Amino acid sequence: MKRTAPRTLLALALLVPAAAGCGGSAGAGGPDTVTVTVGYQSKTINTVTAGTLLRSLGYFEEELARRGARDGVRYEVRWQDYATGAPITAQMTAGKIDIGSMGDFPLLLNAARGKQLDRPTRLVSVTGYNLRGGLNTIVTAPGSGLDSLRDLKGKKVSTSVGSAADGTLVRALQQEGLDPGKDIRKLNQQPAVGASALQSGSADALSQFVAWPGLLAYQGRAKALYDGAALDLPTFHGVTAREDFAEKRPAVLEDFLRAQIRATRYLREKPVEAAESVAKATGLPAEVVYLYNGANGIATFDTTVKPELVAALKKDVPVLASAGLVGEVDAETFVDSFVDDGPVRRAHGAGYDEALAAKAPAARSELWRGDGTTASYDEPGALLAAVAAAGDGAVRAAYVPDTTTGTQWFADKAVWVADGARLLPFVAPSAAADWIAGHPGARTVSWEQALERAS
């Protein structure tokens, strides 16, 4: 993602006076104004229910307006947009951001930095998650001869050290018997820089988080090399709040979480409208937003703090420790002291336990028509038939879940395998090769051949 331009940083500095603490203190609106500052990442689109979409819907402001009418206080929300989680953490530990959203690895760094500076933070809710890890993908150039992780030996791989995408890269290489510190040359770069490096040839592959892999694939600037869901380890984005703010303004934090719950419901009920809204705010193609946030998208949106996600955080701690990004800490104690689902439990009310136990349905193939309507299919072959039957301009986007991991991908960017009468999609060529090795007679076919066979 692009670094915040100096002009934008100056604007933010002017917006939030250095002397003004945000934790519910009086702000520029006068002595009876309580200012709440929210840090978010507009282009990290799995945080939209606590950022971009929530802001556009105005739900938090509505919740605070009702509270203000009861309290006799004027509440003001200040939204601050950043490219990554690191500056949000820096502002939180400086007392200038009250609530922030970011990915799982940055959340742990947020917790570590808060403890180090005696400005502790709490993980209070979740935005989007994928229980298998499909939010992170390793991609390579379209014309690259790289087909598997083993092909990365001796190559230059761009990633953002300390991000979940870096964690995916490290774990995936280790699973293949490669040493991430010796067998590749890791380039520590911001996503936008890495994307440019991939295009110029100065990087052989790129390991990044949502929405970069999908965006580059959609633009024809990259092809998938490795589906993060192959690790079968959850990855997610969540909401963190300063502990002092949560203790001073617990009702305001619960108002934020109620607003997030409402935004999550809106996204589920109106996924196309939500994708269009986020696309307009971020400049990302709506088709890419929908790949991740759509009705059958890679991400599941749910504010509850599921045990599987907490367990995954504990497995992430050693990865960050090995990179020297957190000190030697006991993962169990460290994570348990950071996670606090009390506020979101209260915001949900009686329905929390039911929501906590709910499981995401299996992804289905989906067609986004040119007229704005969508249709889903149990079998990818049925989607192919629908695409083949549609006229020019009748299809806006088509999505299919990977045969082995369930990760949604663009149908025309997938690797297709013909196995008897079945047409099976895969995100990565190595996954397709594994399938073919175990199914005699199966073979890869092009997108055009798959369409022809389906019709």
In short:
With 455 residues, the protein is α+β, with helices and mostly antiparallel strands. It has helices at residues 6-15, 52-57, 59-71, 85-93, 104-116, 164-175, 191-200, 212-218, 243-248, 250-269, 271-282, 286-293, 307-322, 331-338, 342-348, 352-357, 380-389, 429-438, 447-454; strands at residues 26-27, 30-40, 74-81, 99-103, 121-130, 136-140, 156-159, 185-188, 205-209, 223-227, 235-242, 300-301, 365-369, 374-377, 395-401, 408-410, 415-419, 422-426, 443-445.
Number of strands: 19
What is CATH's topology name of the largest domain?
D-Maltodextrin-Binding Protein, domain 2
Taken from the alpha-carbon principal axes, the silhouette is globular
Tell me the count of domains.
3
Q: What is Rg? A: 22 Å
